[in-house]
Amino acid sequence: MFEKDLLQDQVIVVTGGGSGLGRSMAERFASLGARLVLCSRRLEVVERAAEEIEASTGSEVLGLSCDVRELDQVEGVVTRAVERFGRVTGLVNNAAGNFLAQTETLSSNAFKTVVDIVLNGTFHATLACGRQMIEQGGGTVLSIATTYAWTGSAFVVPSACAKAGVVAMTRSLAVEWARYGVRCNAIAPGPFPTEGAFSRLMPPGVEEAALRKIPLRRFGDHEELANLASYLMSPGSGYVNGEIVTIDGGEWLNGGEFNHFTSLPDEQIDGMFEQLRAATRRR
Ligand code: HXC
Fold first, then answer.
1. Which residue blocks in 86-138 are alpha helix, DSSP H?
2. Rounded to 5 degrees, what angle do the CA atoms 235, 240, 243 make?
3. What is the CATH number of the domain that holds 66?
4. Residue 113 falls within a domain, yes or no?
5. Relative to the CA of 113, which ligand 1 atom is closest?
6. Sign (positive or negative) of CA dihedral 242, 252, 17, 26
């Protein structure tokens, strides 16, 4: 679909790049010639991903530990990226945190935790990489949003609020930083199977119903998301700025993400969410 060296001159930071969609996007960028800096809270995961991507693509990949909730840690990543590769031309804000819960049961810390990762984390990475891009004369910021950032969704209120902030940040900076040659866009993916998201957001036994809500009747393929991200990171999309591109098989037009659970009895909702929480705790 793309020229082999499409991203050859690029140095791209991917937050949460050690697993899931972050890793799939990273792998595709590297196969198109980009050099990468992957960061994650789990150093061993991100180091393994970096080694494997280097081996399969021949591109240089640096894996670093970083909690995006801490600005100084993200600044440290940018310093290491510049030491190693001389610049940062792209950032993918992929790191996220989420879980299903009845909102009235949430603690203040539960809300804060998700907002800290998703909204503050995206701001920290955008600020640290953006400053570097402004100094260099340009770059591209791509954030992973979600369709419920504008529709809202039952049972994921912290994530919906945080992702809405990410969309607002994307559109605001698209205008503010265009004069520095920094483009800001976002992708709103529907359900793409990953261990991290599905273990938290897909209660056992509801997969069939989830598929039926998607007009295309299937989940997304990682390759499809990676292709869209590669296009948005490439010079070929140079006039796309401030855009949120949806890739969800038409799902959001057909009723949204988790609202349908409201039709279930309360005990069943509680049971499903508790099962997910217990399963992710065991990991
Ligand atoms: C209610 C919960 C909870 C749950 C945690 N909390 N899980 N409350 N239901 N299922 C509460 C805790 O009780 C605690 O509050 C507070 O949240 C912080 O929890 P910790 O476990 O201490 O936080 P931490 O270890 O930092 O973990 C953060 C996390 C976790 C978000 C809770 O799930 C995580 O690390 N996630 C990262 C990966 C991830 O979520 N990937 C999926 C992203 S998918 P108290 O008051 O007890 O201290 C995504 C897709 C969106 O975003 C689009 C979909 C289509």
1. 108-115, 121-136
2. 135
3. 3.40.50.720
4. yes
5. 18
6. negative
Measured CA to CA, the distance from residue 174 to residue 240 in angstroms comes to 10
Domain total for the chain?
Answer: 1
Tokens 């969609």 found at = 21
Q: How far apart are the first and last CA of the chain?
A: 37
How remote is the CA of residue 43 from the centroid of ligand 1, in Å?
Answer: 19
Q: Does residue 1 lie in a domain region?
A: no
Q: For 40-94, write each residue's pLDDT tens digit.
A: 999 999 999 999 999 999 999 999 999 999 999 999 999 999 999 999 999 999 9
Q: What residues have CB less than 8 Å from 205, skipping those under 6 apart? A: none
- Please report, as a single letter, which amino acid is at residue 266: D
pLDDT at 209 over 80: yes
| 27/34 Cα distance (integer angstroms) | 9
Predicted model pTM:
0.97
Counts of helices then strands in the chain (DSSP H, E): 11, 7
Residues lining ligand 1, CB < 6 A? 96-99, 101, 106-107, 109-110, 113-114, 146, 159, 190-191, 196-197, 200, 257, 277
